[in-house]
């Protein structure tokens, strides 16, 4: 991570098992372009820098520059997240700032490659066509990290994650766009095993999904109770 940087903090995903919203907040705090570019300039002057910025992101890379579009609603909002079960009508999902930032980083003469190694929300990319194009064209080194977490709709409901069919739609779109741009890119999916509500049959569904799509996982995380999360409350009380 020596030559990576954090562009923002916070996450409005509201996943039941995740504590990021508890300690960073669900409202995104995005750094200014000037601040990020100044850090990039500093990184490029490091004696061991060889032209590659390994990551520009945060808890969820494609949330940079996004915000609630209604100040009054923001002060009284009690939702745990802004995406589940459907995107909030006040959420501004325009990818303009994120795309502009990545392009300005690429324009640095000492930068040869800029990668987005942080995970992305695939359901959010549905509303960010330009960012999606930039990602595939310039910012995926070979594998993109995405976290569907489960392949059972009953489990994703408990997790407050998008339904599995949405992930399969994203995969087809990702592979089609990769081929269209002449690139051989892949997706590394993250899954959680033994989450509250998950059964052996649900994990078999994950295995069959991976086999059907000829995918390999980098890791499968066994559910770990995290203080302050809904999933932990369910784990201890059921």
Brief rundown of the structure:
The protein has ten helices and eleven strands. The chain has 238 residues and is of the alpha/beta class.
Strand-helix topology:
Elements: E1 4-6, E2 8-9, H1 20-23, E3 29-30, H2 33-44, E4 52-53, E5 55-57, E6 67-68, H3 71-76, E7 91-92, H4 96-106, E8 113-114, H5 122-125, H6 129-139, E9 143-149, H7 153-159, H8 164-180, E10 186-193, H9 200-212, E11 220-222, H10 230-237
Parallel strand pairs: 1-5, 4-8, 9-10, 10-11
Antiparallel strand pairs: 2-3, 6-7
Give an account of the 3D structure.
The chain has 238 residues and is of the alpha/beta class. The chain is 39% helix and 15% strand. It has helices spanning 20-23, 33-44, 71-76, 96-106, 122-125, 129-139, 153-159, 164-180, 200-212, 230-237; strands at residues 4-6, 8-9, 29-30, 52-53, 55-57, 67-68, 91-92, 113-114, 143-149, 186-193, 220-222. Strands 9-10-11 form a 3-stranded parallel β-sheet. A two-stranded parallel sheet has the order 1-5. A two-stranded antiparallel ribbon has the order 2-3. Strand 10 (186-193), helix 9 (200-212) and strand 11 form a beta-alpha-beta unit. The longest helix is centred in the C-terminal third of the chain and has 17 residues, at 164-180. The radius of gyration is 18 Å and the shape is globular. It starts with a strand and ends with a helix.
């Amino acid at each position: 991570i020596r030559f990576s940087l954090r562009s923002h903090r916070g996450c409005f995903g509201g996943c039941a098992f995740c504590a990021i919203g508890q300690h960073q907040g669900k409202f995104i705090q995005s750094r200014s372009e000037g601040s990020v570019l100044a850090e990039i300039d500093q990184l490029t002057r490091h004696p061991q820098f060889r032209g590659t910025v390994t990551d520009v992101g945060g808890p969820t890379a494609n949330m940079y520059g996004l915000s609630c579009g209604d100040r009054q609603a923001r002060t009284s909002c009690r939702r745990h997240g802004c995406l589940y079960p459907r995107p909030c009508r006040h959420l501004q999902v325009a990818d303009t700032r994120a795309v502009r930032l990545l392009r300005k980083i690429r324009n640095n003469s000492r930068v040869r490659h800029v990668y987005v190694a942080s995970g992305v929300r695939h359901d959010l990319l549905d509303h960010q066509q330009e960012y999606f194009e930039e990602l595939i064209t310039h910012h995926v080194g070979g594998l993109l990290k995405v976290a569907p977490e489960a392949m059972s709709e009953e489990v994703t409901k408990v997790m407050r994650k998008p339904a599995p069919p949405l992930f399969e739609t994203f995969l087809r779109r990702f592979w089609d766009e990769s081929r269209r741009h002449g690139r051989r890119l892949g997706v590394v999916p993250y899954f959680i095993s033994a989450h509250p509500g998950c059964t052996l049959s649900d994990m078999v569904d994950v295995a069959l999904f991976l086999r059907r799509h000829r995918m390999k996982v980098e890791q499968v995380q066994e559910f770990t109770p995290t203080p302050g999360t809904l999933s932990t409350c369910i784990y201890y009380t059921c």
